[in-house]
Write a structure and sequence with these properties.
CATH topology of the largest domain: outer membrane lipoprotein receptor (LolB), chain A
Helix content: 25-40%
Number of domains: 2
Distance between the termini: 114 Å
Strand order of the largest sheet: 6-5-4-3-2-1-13-12-11-10-9-8-7
Number of helices: 13
Radius of gyration: 28 Å
Largest sheet: 13 strands, antiparallel
CATH superfamily of the largest domain: Lipoprotein localisation LolA/LolB/LppX
Strand content: 35-45%
CATH architecture of the largest domain: Clam
Number of strands: 26
CATH class of the largest domain: Mainly Beta
Length: 493
């Protein structure tokens, strides 16, 4: 009997030890524990994995990234109504519908604008108001795929996938964070509250021509009970330090009918778009030593001095800016191109400044832009290395306060700030006194049906007593000064 008891006790100890060993081996890693805790807080692993669709409806705002009145301003926004984001959680498709109205003076007027856009797998698309779909670039589609995971349900589901990789667990400021590389290869950071275990934010990285390697962060708050889940009713997205979306959710539906989220057939069959389209640069001589370099939506102007060349505007991106620089050098190969005048800080007009710096050009701009451009050229561009990342150079910058007179024996041009413009506080216009030409960006685009900034331009022209014969817009065709006067006469009649 004693031997039997001893054997039984020994066997029990062995079983207990084995159980402890197995338990120790199966204990979750810190990164897995973060994901497991988030899943439990949201409603449970099984409940999350069972979700097929998610529809989020609400209202809020979109920020005007890179287009506000100063580089640091954040007051301009589009007010959103009818926001609806339908997600095929398992299928990897998203479609967003919204109507936005600018709270600021805008080229297209302040009437509501309806937007429809989405992503289906690798295919991103926009749908115009008339129903015509177009495919977006691969980079935009990738950003939209990443954005699909900027929600607690989708990011935690992705982290639970056996094909996902979890790494870099850390704790700071009352939050635990872990990096999640999805089975499809996208890497994001998930953070959860240490107390509630509910997700607090998701961060992904992307490339921006102006901001470089930039973090896109969506934070979650005001969780509510929805169909056995905890879901946030307030989602705020920032790109770098700028708020780009602030959504207050009014309705959330789990496993509701989303309709067809597949990319439109015309888009799905269209060729993939690897990057910006090739630049087309035409040259039109406006006067001796002055050329309009046009061909697409954003123009530049080349100016010839006795011993050097100057460019007005390096817009959009590397592709456009480098093509314009090449055309300038082609037109006058025996003179160095030394300067570029940047009319203002807006991203579509300053997106080529880094390329200009890589080519050794001195940047001439409004004094209020100096810090912005210094920052722009110092930013890392490792995700999509641009011209400056490949050929680094320090920025050389000259600023304009009240006026800058540039003159030699063959050419004269005066640079003036456009004071008080509701479009931007950092605008410059270029005036050629001998030729009576005025070069300006955005404040007067002749073909536009709405001219919210033209009155201020006319004010500035008159304040400076400029004798203008023709206006050379960065957008649109060259027109007589009388066209601006007609525009203003119509707006005041």
């Amino acid at each position: 009997m004693d031997n039997w008891r001893l054997m039984t006790r020994t066997t029990s100890l062995v079983v207990f030890a084995a159980a402890v060993a197995i338990g120790g081996c199966s204990r979750a890693t810190p990164e897995q524990q973060t994901v497991d805790d988030a899943a439990a807080a949201l409603g449970g692993r099984d409940r999350l994995l069972a979700i097929k669709t998610l529809v989020i409806e609400g209202e809020g705002t979109n920020g005007n990234l890179g287009q506000d009145v100063t580089p640091e301003a954040t007051g301009q926004a589009f007010v959103l109504k009818g926001y609806k984001r339908a997600i095929d959680v398992a299928g990897g498709a998203v479609r967003v519908e919204q109507t936005r109205t600018p709270n600021f003076a805008y080229f297209q007027g302040q009437q509501p604008q309806t937007q429809v856009f989405g992503v289906d797998g690798d295919v991103g698309y926009n749908v115009a108001p008339n129903g015509t779909p177009t495919r977006v670039s691969n980079a935009v589609a990738k950003d939209r795929r990443a954005e699909m995971y900027h929600h607690p349900v989708t990011i935690v589901r992705a982290a639970l996938d056996p094909g996902a990789k979890l790494a870099n667990p850390r704790t700071a400021n009352g939050q635990r964070a872990v990096d999640v590389t999805t089975a499809a290869g996208l890497t994001l950071t998930l953070a959860i509250d240490e107390t509630t275990k509910l997700p607090t934010r998701v961060v992904s990285m992307t490339d921006n021509p102006n901001l470089g390697d930039v973090a896109v962060e969506t934070s979650f708050s005001d969780y509510q009970d929805v169909a056995g889940l905890k879901l946030p009713s307030h989602l705020t997205t920032k790109t770098d330090k700028f708020t780009t979306a602030d959504i207050r959710v009014t309705k959330q539906s789990v496993d509701a009918d989303t309709g067809n989220l597949a990319a439109p057939a015309a888009v799905a069959s269209a060729a993939a778009i690897a990057g910006p389209p090739p630049a087309t640069v035409t040259a039109e001589e406006l006067a001796s030593g002055i050329w309009l370099l046009a061909g697409q939506s954003h123009h530049s102007v080349l100016v010839e001095f006795a011993d050097h060349l100057m460019l007005i505007e390096a817009p959009q991106n590397d592709t456009r800016a480098l093509a314009v620089i090449a055309k300038a050098r082609e037109l006058r190969p025996n003179k160095p191109l030394t300067h570029v005048v940047s009319t203002h800080h807006h991203f579509d007009h300053s997106g080529g400044v880094r390329a200009a710096v890589s080519e050794g050009l001195t940047v001439v701009t409004h004094k209020a832009n100096a810090a912005f451009y210094q920052d722009a050229v110092s930013r890392a561009h490792t995700l999509a290395p641009d011209a400056l990342a490949k050929k680094p150079k320090p920025i050389k910058i000259e600023t304009v306060d009240d006026v800058m007179h540039l003159k030699d024996d063959t050419m004269a041009v005066d640079l003036y700030p456009i004071a008080g413009s509701p479009h931007a506080d950092t605008l410059l216009m270029a005036y050629f006194p001998k030729q009576r030409l005025l070069v300006e960006a955005d404040v007067y685009s002749p073909a536009s049906a709405v001219q919210p900034y033209a009155a201020n331009l006319l004010e500035n022209i008159r304040k400076r007593n400029l004798d203008v014969d023709r206006i050379v817009p960065i957008h649109g065709t060259v027109v007589p000064f009388s066209e601006l006067l007609k525009t203003q006469a119509k707006s005041t009649s």
